[in-house]
């Protein structure tokens, strides 16, 4: 991970090393935070954020689901995002939006803890590489929607993914797939999953415990462009073993093929996976005019300055960076 120059925190750009939070931050103890992972891609017209509007809309929905008040509007968050990318001079990078309960009081109750919002950017290659992924079925089950709001991209429930990822890597695999309480395939630790069988693209529905992925939605739309039927349906573990192809997708992962599941070999990327990977590369890098509206151009940097977003109470700013 390569550090950038600035991180946006509560209305201003601060040097990377000064973007600090208090040790008694509520979210650090209780997981009361929501986040988004978004990417900037190099295009012929300069860097552009891919599907920024959808990511910000999901951030707002996630905050509402866990009862976290957001002190900034979508317009303000958009401006902060573009300002941060421009100030850091990125042509291609990852963006992490984070809204968390800060330091106010200790204990489960969070109402007196202010919401701290930050936008960080850094250069980050695809998290699962590009040469294929060896997948194992985790012994851990995916979070259940009756226990936590799985539709929210919240930090607390991600312990589930951390445990599954560690288990897979300790066993010599690259990634884990989690089943839900009913035994249906849900998703991987940080990516949605697609099965290709008989020319159709199959992916678990949100009801299976999977996050409703923006990259997942992108691939379904690109599949329609290519004439590949895409269906959301429950999948069993054996559906993975019987698949012609399996691919994973996510903002951090991009589009990557699965080479094996639980020791059952699949080999290199199949034809459907390759077509989708090529189409995704074209649309994210501005080579597909049909989906230019998915790209938000990053303006040239005017240098670090106070953001147009409204500042918080000064006391809140002090404790958030104490």
TrEMBL record:
<keyword id="KW-0663">Pyridoxal phosphate</keyword>
<dbReference type="Pfam" id="PF01063">
    <property type="entry name" value="Aminotran_4"/>
</dbReference>
<keyword id="KW-0100">Branched-chain amino acid biosynthesis</keyword>
<dbReference type="InterPro" id="IPR050571">
    <property type="entry name" value="Class-IV_PLP-Dep_Aminotrnsfr"/>
</dbReference>
<feature type="region of interest" description="Disordered">
    <location>
        <begin position="287"/>
        <end position="322"/>
    </location>
</feature>
<comment type="function">
    <text>Acts on leucine, isoleucine and valine.</text>
</comment>
<dbReference type="InterPro" id="IPR043132">
    <property type="entry name" value="BCAT-like_C"/>
</dbReference>
<dbReference type="InterPro" id="IPR043131">
    <property type="entry name" value="BCAT-like_N"/>
</dbReference>
<dbReference type="GO" id="GO:0052655">
    <property type="term" value="F:L-valine-2-oxoglutarate transaminase activity"/>
</dbReference>
<keyword id="KW-0028">Amino-acid biosynthesis</keyword>
<dbReference type="GO" id="GO:0052654">
    <property type="term" value="F:L-leucine-2-oxoglutarate transaminase activity"/>
</dbReference>
<comment type="pathway">
    <text>Amino-acid biosynthesis; L-valine biosynthesis; L-valine from pyruvate: step 4/4.</text>
</comment>
<keyword id="KW-0032">Aminotransferase</keyword>
<dbReference type="InterPro" id="IPR036038">
    <property type="entry name" value="Aminotransferase-like"/>
</dbReference>
<dbReference type="GO" id="GO:0009098">
    <property type="term" value="P:L-leucine biosynthetic process"/>
</dbReference>
<protein>
    <recommendedName>
        <fullName>Branched-chain-amino-acid aminotransferase</fullName>
        <ecNumber>2.6.1.42</ecNumber>
    </recommendedName>
</protein>
<keyword id="KW-0808">Transferase</keyword>
<dbReference type="GO" id="GO:0009097">
    <property type="term" value="P:isoleucine biosynthetic process"/>
</dbReference>
<comment type="similarity">
    <text>Belongs to the class-IV pyridoxal-phosphate-dependent aminotransferase family.</text>
</comment>
<dbReference type="GO" id="GO:0052656">
    <property type="term" value="F:L-isoleucine-2-oxoglutarate transaminase activity"/>
</dbReference>
<dbReference type="GO" id="GO:0009099">
    <property type="term" value="P:L-valine biosynthetic process"/>
</dbReference>
<dbReference type="InterPro" id="IPR005785">
    <property type="entry name" value="B_amino_transI"/>
</dbReference>
<dbReference type="InterPro" id="IPR001544">
    <property type="entry name" value="Aminotrans_IV"/>
</dbReference>
<comment type="pathway">
    <text>Amino-acid biosynthesis; L-leucine biosynthesis; L-leucine from 3-methyl-2-oxobutanoate: step 4/4.</text>
</comment>
